[in-house]
Write a structure and sequence with these properties.
The structure is a single chain. The protein has a domain of 123 residues: 3-Layer(bab) Sandwich (minor pseudopilin epsh fold), CATH 3.55.40.10. It is built from three helices and eleven strands. A hairpin with a 6-residue loop joins strand 10 and strand 11.
Amino acid sequence: MKVLNYRRGAAFGVRRERLKGLTPHASRLTPRGSSSGFTLLELMLVVFILSVTALFVFPRVSSFGAADLKRTARHFAGLIQHLAQESSTTKQTYRLYFNLENGAYWAAVLGENGEFVEATDPMTRRRVLPKEISFEDVVTPAQGKVNEGEAFMQFFPVGVEKVWIHLKQGERQWTLVVNPLTGRVKVMDEYVDVQISQR
């Protein structure tokens, strides 16, 4: 009986040794040379990706200003054509006022009492230029070049005053030139200087 117990114990001991050899050690499961930080190569790769991204993002951001100025110029072109048509259709005289101090602009119609009354048409209601856009100056035959205070252009049933409107946003400047016969507006993405003699 003692011999059998010894052999069984020896057999169990061999099995334990074999199982022990099959059990992975913690040190073998841990990758060698691992680090919780970034390597120099990884940092250089991140910087490169950010630089390439900036090349595509920053030009688009800088173009937002040009888009706002262009949109404002188109708005004025539509507004002026609308007033020209209204004057021709209703046989009334209109004015488009520009406040060069606060960027406000609005339309007015000549009343029976000989005074101009602010128009109530939603299309021509008082508005203000978008932020960072302003009037550089307005040139009209009646007032000459106006760069402060208020200026206005007039619409008659038979035509429109030829007017130059200069808008600016930062370093950008645009010029709107009104055709006196058709009321159409030519838009140029630069400042076009003009000399005109007052009446």
